[in-house]
Amino acid sequence: MKIHEYQAKEIFTAFGIPVPRERVAANPAEAAMLAPELGMPVVIKAQVLVGGRGKAGGVKKVESADQVEVVAKNIIGMDIKGLRVNKVLVSECVDIKGETYVGIIIDRATRAPVLMASAAGGVEIEEVAKATPEKILKVAIDPAAGLLSFQARNVGMALYGDAHCPTGAAEAKLAREFAGIAQKLYRIFLAKDCSLIEINPLVKLGSGSLLALDAKINFDDNADFRHKEWEEMRDLSAEEPTEVEAKAAGLTYIKLAGNVGCVVNGAGLAMATMDLIKRYGGEPANFLDVGGSSSPEKMVTAMRIILSDPNVKAILINIFGGITRCDDIANGLLAAQKMADIKVPLVARLTGTNAEKAREILKGSPVTSAETMGDAVKKAVALAGGAK
Amino acid sequence: MSIFVDKNTRLIVQGITGRDGAFHAKAMKEYGTNVVGGVTPGKGGQQVEGLPVFDSVEDAVEKTGANASIIFVPASFATDAMYECIASDLDLVVCISEGVPTMDMVKVLDYAKGRKTRVLGPNCPGVISPGKAKVGIMPAASFKPGCVGVVSRSGTLTYEVASQTSEFGQSTVVGIGGDPVIGTNFIDCLERFNADPETKAIVLVGEIGGTDEERAAEWVKANCRKPVLGFIAGQTAPPGKRMGHAGAIISGGSGTAPEKVKAFEAAGITVVYEPDEIGPKLRAKL
Predict the structure, then answer these.
(1) What per-residue confidence (pLDDT) applies to A163?
(2) Closest Cα of chain B to A267: distance in Å?
(3) Which residues does chain A have within 8 Å of residue B156's beta carbon, measured at their own beta carbons?
(4) Which of A101, A209, A334, A367 would staple A118 via disulfide (CB 3.0–4.6 Å)?
C-alpha cells in the first residue's frame, strides 16, 4: 500500500526527521489561506500516488500570494498518469545547496534490509541504478543488530566528504546528521512495516543542515493485520473500484485492456493463463485469482466484476482443483448465470478435485467445456472475436 | 531417492486443531506420509484424526521423534511457529500460511542461519516426493513416482506443470512460495536435484519479480549436469501491479519476464512457453 507524501511526512515528523514547514490543502481556497503564514514564495505539490508528478506539471513554485489559488486550482483535479489529484501540499521554499538520495528496501537476494544512498539526488533512483549503478551506495543491515551508527556515518562521509581532501568539520557534521536521519528511517521502516521508505531529495540547506524535501513510504500489505490505522490512510480514489470490491470478497482482480475475461485459481496459473491468451492472439481483460477456497458465492462475485467491464467478449474459467473444488466452481457458474443474464460465451476448463461432478453439473448448460488449458484458451480467444 | 521428504520423514502438523490443519493432516496421512502428531498450544493431550496433539514442538519431538513440521496457523502466529521448529532442530519446516510480513520472514531466516532447520515457504503449497511422502496441500492425484524434479514459485501452476510430466513421473515437486523473502530458493532445490540420482531432468517454474530466476540460471550454467526446462509466468503482467503473489511484481523496470527468459536461454535452459509443450520437450531430452 502506498501513502501520500504529506502522510509520510507526518510519520517523519513524529520520528524526528526534519521536513519543510508545510500544510496540506484539499481545495484552492484552503491553499490560498495557508500560503501567507508559510511566507512567500511557496511550492505547491500535487499529492498523487504515482511518480513523475514534476514532469507532469504537478509541482509549481508560486511567487506572489494572489497567484496561489490559481495555481492550486490548476493542479487540483489534474490527471497524472491516470490518477486524479485531490490534494496539494503547500510548502515553504527552502534554500537548497545540494541534493542526495537515501532509502531502505528489503533486498530479496540477500534476505536483508539494505540502506541505499546516492549523491545523485532528485532524480528517479531506478534511472540512476540503470545508467550508473556505481553511483549508488549500498549497506546491508543486519536484522539482529539493526543499522549501526558507523555504517550510516560512513555512508554520510562518502556522500558529503571529498575523496581528495581531508574530511573537515563541516563534512563530519553533515555525515553525523545524515547518520541520524538514516537510523530514524530504519526505525520507521521497522515500526511501520514498510516495504520501501525513501527521501528523494534529502537536501542540504544554506544553513548547513539536512532536510527531507520529499518523502515516500510504501507499506508491506502482509502486515495489515497489525496496522488498523492503515485503513484510514488508504486513498481509495487512487484504486480501481472493481479491484477494491474484489478484495473485499477475497478475490484478487486487476483490470487490463483486453477482451478475454479470465477466472483462475492461483496467481501463477492466472498469470500463465493470461500469457497463453496473448500467445494465441487474444488480449486478457483481467487478472483474477479466486484464491484457495472457492464458494459458489465467490464465483458469482467474480463473474459480476468481470462483466462490469464492457470490453469483455468471452470469459475463460481455468481451474486446477486442489483445495478449490471444481463442483463449487460449476455451481457458482450456474448461479451467476441465473442471477445475471450473461450474454458473453463462457469456456470452462475444470480439472483436479471433483472435476467429474463439475462436468455433470455443467451438462446441458451453454458453457463450452475444454480438456486442456491450451484448448480452453484457443476456444475463448475464438469466441471473443478471434486472434488479432 | 528424492529430495527434502521421503519415507524417513516424521511429520508434525502445527495448527492441527484448526480446519485446514485437520483436513490436511488427514490427507497427508492417507497419502502415506508418516504423520506422527500435531501441535496446538493449550490443546495438548487431545487427539485429531487419531493423532496425538502436543502443547509445544519441543514436547512433540521428545515424544514422537518428529523431524519435520508443516504450519497451518494464521500469518500473525506463523513466525513464532517457525522459530519453534528452528529452536527444536527439526530438519524441515514447511510454512503453508500466507500473508507473513516480509520483515518477520527476514528475522526468522536470520535466526535460522547456522542452525539445522531448512525453512520452505511461506505462502507455498509444500513438497511431495510421490509414493513416499506428501508434506503439503497439493492434490495427490496430479503426481506419480518418477524421474522429473519440479521446483516452482507457484501453487496451482505447479500442479498443472507436474501433470504435464506424468509420462515420466516426478522424483520430488517443491513449491518454494510466491513471497519476496522465502526460506528455500531455486538454487537450494537445483543443488539437491542435481545430486539426486533418481532425478533425470528438472523443470523450473518461475514468475515475474525479483532476480531469483536469473541467479538460478547462472547456477545451472555453472553446475548443472541434467537437462533443465524453464517456464516463466507473467509475460503479460503490467509493471507496478502486484499479481496476487507478494513477490510477483515488476518494479523499477526489473523482474520482467523477457529478462528471465533471456537468462534461461543464456544458461542453456530449454524455455517452455505453454504447459502443453512440457511433455514433448522432456521426451526430446530423456
Answers:
(1) 61
(2) 5
(3) 264-266, 268-269, 320, 322, 324
(4) A101
Strand order of the β-sheet with A22-25 is A22-25, A87-92, A42-47, A59-62
Distance CA B22, CA B16 (A): 5
The CATH H-level superfamily of B138-285 is Succinyl-CoA synthetase domains (3.40.50.261)
Count the neighbouring beta carbons within 10 Å of the beta carbon of residue A10. 16
Print burial letters for B60-91: b (CB count within 10 Å at least 16), e (below 16): bbeebebbbbbbbbebeebbebbbbbbebebb
Architecture of domain B11-120: 3-Layer(aba) Sandwich (3.40)
Residue A165 has what pLDDT?
A: 66
Write down the pTM of the prediction: 0.93
CA distance A216 to A264: 34
Architecture of the structural domain at A96-233? 2-Layer Sandwich (3.30)
Count the Cβ atoms, other than its own, within 10 Å of residue A358.
25
**Residue extents of the structural domains in chain B:** 11-120, 138-285
Task: Give the sheet arrangement for strand A346-352, strand by strand.
Answer: A252-255, A286-289, A260-264, A314-321, A346-352, A368-369
Class of domain A21-92: alpha beta
For residue A272, list chain B residues with Cβ-Cβ distance below 8 A: 157, 160, 231, 233, 274-275
Phi, psi of A216 (to 5 degrees): -135, 130
User: How far apart (Å, rounded) are the C-alpha atoms in residues B100 and A250?
Assistant: 17
Contact call for residues A353 and A324 (beta carbons, < 8 A): yes
ipTM confidence score: 0.93
Give tens-digit pLDDT for B92-130: 999 999 999 999 999 999 999 999 999 999 999 999 999
CA distance B221 to A226: 43
Compare CB distances from B181 to A106, A266, A268 and report the shortest one's residue: A106
CB atoms within 10 A of CB A203: 21
Q: Residue A134 is placed in which grid cell?
A: 556505481
Q: Of B105, B159, B178, which is closest to A322 when you measure between CB atoms?
A: B159
Among A69, A8, A75, A70, which Cα is nearest to A36's?
A69
Residue type for B227, please?
Answer: P
Place of cell 496430479: B142
Name which of B31, B80, B96, B103 to mutate to probe chain A: the one with the most chain A Cβ atoms within 10 A of its Cβ.
Answer: B103
- Taking the C-alpha atoms of residue A114 and residue B22, their distance in angstroms, rounded to an integer, is 40
Spatial distance between the Cα atoms of B207 and B212, rounded to a whole number of angstroms: 9
Does A52 have pLDDT greater than 90? no
